[in-house]
């Protein structure tokens, strides 16, 4: 299994952002532009596919569903206590983390520059970005506890979207896990 900047069971408690502030900032900001997704790390072919993907109504629906359920899903994960029980046993696992704190700082700065939300909401979002910076890497590293056969990989040039900005890294790690699973199956057969 490969996890790429996934939701984590301890995320809500560690970096909570009130819904009104989140809505005031995220609903008005050009997210892809501010975090650099529209101009960083892409080849021309990648960008063409990115534009096609983003125009797909299913992509928008998936993003909206993620936003709507992110807190609830983290709470469900927490109740399952998967980290404490090594839920994946010895299954191969790679946890890939991008620089989400960088993106949150860019959003906070963009919200300030654009005057989004109230001054208080902008201050709250800056505080949120600081919390993300303090705890994100530790939260992501905790996910390796899901398996006794896990690795942690930092995407060096990505923000919160390593699958978009470093697709070769993600593909390489998927192939690595696939090879491990194939080797395990060969030994069992």
Structure commentary:
The protein is mainly alpha-helical and 189 residues long. It has one domain. Helices cover 65% and strands 8% of the residues. The protein is built from ten helices and three strands; from the N terminus they run βααααααβααβαα. It has helices spanning 11-15, 19-26, 31-35, 44-55, 57-80, 82-85, 100-114, 119-142, 162-165, 167-188, and strands at residues 2-4, 92-97, 149-154. Strands 1-2-3 form a three-stranded parallel β-sheet. The longest helix has 24 residues, at 57-80.
The radius of gyration is 18 Å
Distance between the termini: 21 Å
Low-confidence stretches: none
Give a count of the beta strands, DSSP E runs of length 2 or more.
Answer: 3
Which structural class fits the helix and strand makeup?
Answer: mainly alpha
* DSSP helix fraction: 55-70%
**What general outline do the C-alpha atoms trace?**
globular
Major pleated sheet: 3 strands, parallel
Measured by DSSP, the beta-strand proportion falls in: 5-15%
Total of helices: 10
Strand order of the largest sheet: 1-2-3
Oligomer: single chain
- Order of helix and strand elements from N to C terminus: EHHHHHHEHHEHH
Mean of residue pLDDT values: 84
What is the domain tally? Answer: 1
Summarize the structure.
The protein has 189 residues and is mainly alpha-helical. It has one domain.
């Amino acid at each position: 299994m490969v996890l790429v900047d996934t939701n984590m069971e301890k995320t809500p408690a560690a970096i909570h952002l009130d819904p009104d502030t989140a809505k005031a900032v995220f609903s008005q900001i050009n997210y892809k532009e501010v975090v650099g997704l529209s101009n960083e790390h892409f080849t021309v072919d990648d960008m063409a596919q990115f534009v096609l993907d983003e125009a797909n109504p299913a992509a928008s629906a998936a993003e909206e569903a993620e936003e709507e359920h992110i807190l609830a899903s983290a709470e469900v994960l927490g109740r399952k206590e998967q980290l404490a029980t090594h839920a994946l046993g010895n299954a191969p696992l790679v946890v890939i983390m991008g620089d989400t704190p960088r993106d949150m700082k860019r959003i906070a700065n963009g919200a300030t520059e654009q005057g989004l939300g109230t001054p208080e909401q902008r201050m709250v979002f800056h505080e949120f970005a600081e919390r993300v910076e303090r705890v994100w890497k530790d939260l992501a590293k905790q996910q390796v506890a899901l398996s006794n056969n896990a690795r942690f990989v930092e995407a060096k040039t990505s923000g919160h979207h390593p699958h978009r900005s470093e697709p070769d890294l993600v593909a390489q790690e998927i192939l690595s896990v696939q090879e491990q699973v194939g080797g395990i199956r060969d030994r069992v057969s």
